Amino acid sequence: MLEKFLPHAMLKAKYNLELMIRTLKNDWAIIYYMLS
Fold this sequence. Notes:
Strand content: under 5%
Oligomer: single chain
Distance between the termini: 53 Å
Largest sheet: none
Number of helices: 1
Number of domains: 1
Number of strands: 0
Radius of gyration: 16 Å
């Protein structure tokens, strides 16, 4: 059961991480734009 669950969890974690990085980049772009 764990073997079936783990790949899905890893995929979800990878997706969440990419989403978080993308959100951070957007936030920094906004901050950079406001400061310049």
